[in-house]
Amino acid sequence: MKLLTSTRSILAAICAGAALCSVPAMAQQTAASSAANAAHAPIKIGFINTERVLKESTLAKAAQQKLESEFSKRDKELQDMAARIKAANASLEKNGPVMSDADRIKAQQNLVDMNREFQRKQREFSEDLNARRNEALATVLDKANKVVRDIAQKDHYDIIFQEAVYVNPRIDITDKVIKALDSSSGK
Questions:
Q1: Which ranges of 41-100 does DSSP label H, i.e. alpha helix?
Q2: Count of alpha carbons within 13 Å of 144, Cβ hemisphere only?
Q3: Short-list 36, 48, 73, 69, CA closest to 155
Q4: Please, which residues have CB within 8 angstroms of residue 55's CB and are 6 or more apart in sequence?
Q5: CATH of the domain spanning 42-185
Q6: What is the pLDDT of residues 58-108, one digit of tens each?
Q7: Concatenated DSSP letters for 100-116?
Q8: 26-57 burial, b if ≥16 CB within 10 A, otherwise e?
Q9: Contact status, residue 161 vs residue 45, Cβ threshold 8 Å
Q10: Closest Cα to residue 46, out of 148, 146, 147?
């Protein structure tokens, strides 16, 4: 009888040991099963048309309007200067044949100087405008990228592309990004 009790104790210990050994094995199997399921889960892909965001979002439109108002005075000055150059050129062509050589040379030199000054101012204007436009677009893009990251996390996207050769409209989230950007810029 003592042998039977001892055998039962040994069997119980073996069963308990086997049960304890199987728990980690089951946990590993469950983890492997979860990893396999995750590996077979569909990948969620999105696409955003950055160009549309920069044209259609309220934030981008506001930045464009701000640039236009900031540079409108200088643009008007350049247009006026171009009109003066055109008028001086027309006057020289009309009156040049009847002018004295000294007056004609002086008028031509004046026209060359005006043209040089116009080109310098136009170049400065373009450089300043491009620099400010790049700053404004960078600000809009930073905010748009934050919105895209928020949407990606909230809606569980695996990847969102900004450039592609072809995009199925089904994965295009540009409208969603523009709406979210517009609502966040209103705050």
A1: 50-56, 58-95
A2: 28
A3: 48
A4: none
A5: 3.30.910.20
A6: 999 999 999 999 999 999 999 999 999 999 999 989 988 888 889 889 999
A7: -HHHHHHHHHHHHHHHH
A8: eeeeeeeeeeeeeeeeeeeebbbbbeebbeeb
A9: yes
A10: 148
Task: Tell me how far apart the alpha carbons of residues 71 and 81 are, in angstroms, rounded to a whole number.
Answer: 15
Could you give phi then psi for residue 46, rounded to 5 degrees? -130, 165
Taking CA atoms, 154 is separated from 30, 93, 140, in Å, by 27, 69, 21
How many angstroms separate the Cα of 54 from the Cα of each of 15, 28, 96, 97, 155?
A: 68, 49, 51, 54, 23
Tokens matching residue 40: 């077979």
Dig out the tokens for 120 from the structure. Answer: 């310098």
pLDDT digits (tens, 9 = 90+) for 18-66: 444 444 444 444 444 455 555 677 899 999 999 999 999 999 999 999 9
